[in-house]
Each structure stands twice: as structure tokens, then as C-alpha cells.
Amino acid sequence: MSQEAWLGIDLGTQSVRVLVVGAGGAVLGSGTAPLEGRRDGPRHEQDPGEWWAAVRSASGAALGNGSWRIAGLAVCGTSGTVLLTDPAGRPVTPALMYDDGRAWAEAERLRSAGLAVQNTWGLPKALWLARIHGRGTVAHQPDLITARLIGHPVPTDSSHALKTAYDVTADAWPDVPGAPGLPDVVRPGSLLGEVCPAAAEATGIPAGTPVIAGMTDGCAAQIASGALREGSWNSVLGTTLVLKGASAVPVHDPTGIVYNHRAPDGSWLPGGASSVGAGVLTAAFVGADPAAMDERAAAHEPAGAIAYPLVSPGERFPFLAPQATALVLGEPAGDADLWAALLQGVAFAERLCLDYLHHLGAPLDGPLAFTGGGARSPYWNQLRADVLGRPARIPEQTEPALGMAVLAAHGVTGEALPDIAEGMVRIRTVVEPRPDRTALFAEPYARLVSELTARGWLPEPVAAHAHSRLTLDTADS
Prior knowledge:
By secondary structure, this protein is of the alpha+beta class.
């Protein structure tokens, strides 16, 4: 008999990734196809037609000549990426990607009307598209692919709809005069339909395969990390830093810095995205060997300088400061010391994110996972665990496509998502903090918190809370 397997499709910024995953979490097949975008200042677009071509290519490569029985699939995409479609679901505009910043005027109007949206969120961009290109129906990145797979337009999921200002508590769209058409919405994990014969011929995915409503790529990575029990968190360190956790109730943040996705079971996935991250390393050290630089940086604990390493101007988590810029306090003693200061600065920002979440009352006492490209560095993993004062799990496979395979299994079988994730997510190693190093980093962390406050970026109550937790690890309640 052929082995039962699940298909996860991840629509990324630079590529489409498809994984075939067995019930025990083994990756049985994989495929990738590149995507190209157009960047120019605040403009970042993609041709949505390229998504389907990439899905066809990546799916064919992933499925190959395997003898698996694909029992279901789900699709994730970049959060906040939108386009407009006609009644048949065909694109009538380019896709504005997650970080396209041209809809700032629309965002200002929405905020003045009482909606807590950021400039790059989906609803402001949908309004901008309607103003420039005329009316249509809003679609998110995965909606176009699920419609092609099933053969007709289908509802969007509430995870992708969140940044288009969908109210996941009331399960309703806001009343926005002049807004383009808005799609029906279902909860992630819902059955959308089945793969139609035309899509099966194009992709190699068997006709009749159930198509399950997905989640954003950040939530998909969280599922792939296994951080789904209350108090669990996943820290994704890539170009920038994203933290996502699990909670029985929403984490209320009056500033809107922390927002809450709705999990398939009705619980909550709070999180926030910083502009600090590993992108500063590639910008400051073009062509450097990260492993060699890590080895040299180990001699600088703590570094001679203290950094808040923003990848781009403006910060959005753990504080909201559009005027913030990258800072370095002190004079690094050479390249290795600067590398160390940047690594430590990201870890300090990560600690401040967790201190801010604690300030808001978020549960933090569960396990913490490290994922993203930064988690490939053993030295950085150890450094981060030391700064945070808590153990960190490093999963074996952390791609969002794996998270979508897990979600597909949940949607088809009805088994609880955390239970399925624990059976399919494999932990490669657990990094334990070194208490002497945690104490060593307390003073530079405190100095950084004070500097952020003095510059008017970090609110004083948040700073005071961070200072009060210097002797505790970030899991302490």
C-alpha cells in the first residue's frame, strides 16, 4: 500500500516551496521554484500569474515518482500581500507584497476612522489598488492558488484576512466606505474543496485531494516549530525577528504592536514583528563567512559596544517608533567585536520583546523554539539562550510548508492541531542557557533599555518592567 502523506505549499517572496510530509514528520519529497518581484523605493510588486506557474513546477518536483497517497494539502503566503480579482477570480491588478509602503495615505485615513492598521497592511493597500486600478474583489496570495486548485473562487482564511482588518473576534469585516469587494472568510483548517481535474493535470496533485484553508507564513512557521500549547513561543530570526506564541485568550495591546491570529481550534496566536534581525549582518559584512565570524565573536562577551541593529529605519515591536534608527553605543574594537555587538543586540531586542509580552500579561512559561535562518548558527543559538536565560528548542525542519502539511492533516482528520504537530515536528536539539553568561549580559541589556527610553522610543513603563526582570529568565511569570 502507498504511504499516506500531506502536502504543504508555501508561497514566499523569492520562491514557492512544496513539501510532501509523512504522518511521522519525515519529508518525503520537496520542490522549489523561483519568484521574481519588482522593488523601487516603497514599491514592491509581483505578477500573481507567476505564482501558479511556480506552484506547478514545485509541485511536480516534490511529487516526482513517489508512491504516496496525498491525503490533503494547505497553502500559506506572505502576510499582508493583496491584489484585486474579477468575479471569476482572475487577477486584475499586480500583487502588492507584504512590505509595499505606498498606501500610507489610505492607512492614515483608516486610523483616523478608528481602525488599528499599519501602513503595509492589506486593507490600506486594497484601497490604494482600487483608487489606482478601479474596483475588484480583494484576494490574498494563497486565495489565487486555492481557487486554481479547486477550479473556482473560494473563501479566504481569517489568518490572511487579519491584516486586511478582518475582526477575528467578531468574525466580521469592518464597514469601510469605498472599500473594494471583500471575500467570504473561514477559519484556518476548514475544507475549501478538492483539487479539480485541470489542476491535477497541471500540478501532478491527484484530483479529489482535499484543499484545506491555510494560514500566513508566520503562523505556518509557528506550527512547524510545534509552539502551539499555551505559553509556548516561536522566535523566528531571519532578515528580521518575529515572535509568535500560543494563548487561551487574546493578548490585549492598546498600541496594536502585538496582534492576535485565531488558531483553528479557536484559541489565540499572539505575536509581533520587529525590524531588528540578521539582515544587518549581510549589510555590514558583505561576503563574510558567518561561521568564522561567530568563532571570532565568541571572544567578545560582552562586546565593547552595545547595538540596536535595525535592518531598516523605524521599529514596530517591542515598541512603535517610526523615527527609530539603528544605533551603536561605544566604539567596537574591530570587526569581530562589531559582529559580536550585532549578534548580542539582536538577542537584547529579543529579550525586550519577551519582556514587553510579559508586561502585557502574555503567558510565557511554555517551551521556546528558535527557527529561521539565524537558528542555523549554533553560536548565536547559545548566545540567545544565554541572554534570555531560558532553554531553546531547535526543530529539525522549520519550513512554513511543513506547517501547512501539519495543518492539512488537522483539517482532514479533525485531530487536535497541537497533538498532530507533536507527532510531526522533530526537535533536533535543545540549547541550555549558561547562568554565568546570563548574568554577564544583564548590565549591557539594562544600558540599552535605558538608552532606548532616553531617545523617546521605548515607553518608560515598559522600560521599568524590563529593568525589574533583569534577575529573572524570560519564562518567569
